[in-house]
Design brief:
284 residues, alpha/beta, TIM Barrel, ten-stranded mixed beta sheet, globular, binds iron/sulfur cluster
Length: 284
């Protein structure tokens, strides 16, 4: 199995961008060096019911991102990388333990892909000091398949986006031309390693939730994403999200400069019903 630290080395190939940057000296395309940076951590109640539960999810937002989505709703953190704070692996482990003491149902790692080699070290330290709650890997799914296999001992639940089914769209909206190929391989690896969602008292303990954010004017993309799920992992838990609002560069995009309209909402709702997908639908 691949060693995550070896993928970073002096020429980073940790994520599918494989930009080959020496992160000890320079920032990669993920806009980060080889040191952990977080934007914030808190108890978050806005995730899917089995993730947030009654007490909330212990969410840690990492600075930077290996995608460059023009509509990113977290763009000050992910794209502009403002308001960041450097932490050591020991400090990150202490944050995890603090969130556990606050009764969080899990540790929810948001946009972790470019830091997995350091996050796994922090998880080891935290577990040695008493961390027992599940680890949720909350990702765009722009992750290497081999990295997902290497995460098997560290991650319990995957909260994984399937953003696009067309590489032209992913190039235009997120700056990468192989999203669909990469993300579907990663999602299948997540499903192989963790399987269907397992709940205990309504809270996720293990498994996979596949998320899809519906984008205005991109209904064919949504259709193909839902069909891909139905054909490849029909019994997976799906979360269809309608929370889109124009942010960052999307304000100037001809299709993305508005919210979802009622016709789009009901069209997707009917499709989810027709395909008999199981999971969660966010209200508009
Ligand atoms: S993790 Fe960052 S530096 Fe490494 S390959 Fe990906 S984008 Fe480049």
């Amino acid at each position: 199995m691949v060693k995550l630290k070896d993928l970073v080395g002096n020429s980073c190939k940790l994520c599918p961008r494989e930009c080959g940057v020496d992160r000890n000296r320079f920032k990669g395309l993920c806009k980060t060096y080889n040191k952990l940076e977080i934007a914030s951590y808190n108890i978050h109640c806005g995730e899917e019911p089995p993730i947030s539960g009654k007490n909330g999810s212990g969410t840690i937002f990492f600075a930077g991102c290996n995608l460059g989505c023009i509509y990113c709703q977290n763009y000050p953190i992910s794209q502009l990388v403002k308001a960041k704070r450097a932490v050591t692996t020991e400090e990150l482990a202490d944050i995890m333990l603090k969130l556990q003491r606050k009764k969080a149902h899990n540790i929810n790692l948001v946009t972790p892909s470019h830091f997995v080699h350091l996050i796994t070290e922090a998880i080891k330290i935290a577990r040695n000091k008493g961390l027992t709650i599940p680890i949720v890997y909350n990702t765009s799914s722009y992750d290497k398949e081999e990295v997902i296999y290497a995460l098997d001992d560290f991650v319990d639940v995957y909260l994984a986006d399937l953003k696009y089914t067309d590489n032209k769209i992913s190039k235009e909206l997120s700056g990468v031309s192989n999203y669909f190929d990469v993300a579907t391989k990663a999602i299948l690896a997540m499903y192989r390693t963790k399987g269907k969602l397992v709940l205990k008292d309504g809270i996720a303990k293990k498994g996979l939730i596949v998320r899809h954010l519906v984008l205005p004017g991109f209904l064919k993309n949504t259709e193909r994403a839902l069909y891909w799920i139905k054909e490849n992992i029909p019994d997976v838990t799906v979360s269809v999200m309608f929370q889109y609002f124009p942010a960052y560069k999307a304000l100037n995009h001809e299709k993305l400069n508005r919210k979802i309209n009622p016709d789009e909402y009901f069209y997707v709702l009917n499709l989810v019903e027709k395909l008999e997908l199981d999971g969660y639908i966010q209200e508009v």
